UniProtKB/TrEMBL annotation:
EC number: 2.4.-.-
GO molecular function annotation: glycosyltransferase activity
Pfam families associated with the record: Glyco_transf_4
Protein name: Glycosyltransferase
EC category name: transferase
Top-rank taxon, per record: Bacteria
Protein's UniProt keywords contain Glycosyltransferase: yes
Amino acid sequence: MKKVLIITYYWPPAGGPGVQRWLKFVKYLPDFGVHPVVYVPKNPTYPLQDSNLISDIDSNRITVLKQKIFEPYAMASFFSKKETKKISSGIIAPERKQTFAQKALLWIRGNFFIPDARVFWVKPSVAYLSNYIKEQQIETVITTGPPHSLHLIGLQLKKQMPAIKWIADFRDPWTTIGYYKDLKLSASSHQKHKKLEQQVLNKADQIVVTSAVTKAEFAVLTPKPIAVITNGYDTEPIPPQELDIKFSLAHIGSFLSKRNPRIFWKAITEILKEDATFKEHFELKLIGAVSQEIIDTIDEFKLTKFTRNLGYISHQDAVVEQRKSQVLLLIEIDSDETKCIIPGKLFEYMVSYRPILAIGPEDTDVEQIIKETNTGVYTTYDEKHRIKETIKSYYALFLANKLHVYPEGLARYSRKNLTKKLTELL
């Protein structure tokens, strides 16, 4: 059986979206004649944890290697544990609302740790893995980021052993990722990021990305082959769920400050004023980490009494909640940088067989996927009337007990089919 070395930072008990992609690839690779050797940190700092995901790891079918990592987040937490955890999980407040601690930590993070705070793992990992690759006669190495420091491990291994095949997987882009501009980079730090990005893109044998928009972006920077393998959904051992009695609109996942959809809050507020029965049935359900600005805005629009905030729960419990919800909300930041982002939860939303209401920028891959699969409605930030009418339409169907969706062509996004696509690159 062919062995493939996979270098990833996120691995159970890590929670959140970062762990799902390669946990599921690894789960199905043995079905296609590939034995995954997964290299992960022994003592990582995970802002979110979900021990239930460990059940997806079959130790008889994979090999897991662990080596210690030094992370500055551990020291920074003495300075401000709360702010450090927020930043490491991607929750960054708007600059006008940032505390001194937040500003200081962002500046240090952006200018002292390039490309990210896991950069100290590169050198010891290269020393350990170079010997392991020779001993085990491994021919293919895969790195996945963010954190993009892991691509630097691949870069150094490729320099030492040009014969290995190196695949660089980008779950998110590098210098155009949404939070990049928030890192308070100096001109020289920005140039260092760009240089490292260029080196990785041009030294890897194969680039893998999660969206067509990212492929087009990277194609300008490198002549190397670029494959699009999206995230997807897996079969979940969860029985059918009774739908919420309330007309629940559920947002699942991190609800970041920049995703604050004031146009949505306005639409909901207007419907509440116009329809007395809507007040009796409406519920906003929040599942996952929610920024304080979102909570404050909900209060500003007097929607707090309609809101049920469950906080961060296990992945399995989140799937249960989304399958119980009447409508699923997908909110993306309104910017050009986020057009390439296809949230992993989109695919789980689609297989939940509940209608999706998505709000984001124009001309995105998300919009195309929702249309192709007939799983909901995609709107932009300047379409308040359409958002309002979509909610009213869904509500009318809810009252008539006819709120259903009829998806098409979901099989192409199953984790097993996506893994088969990956093996074609190996």
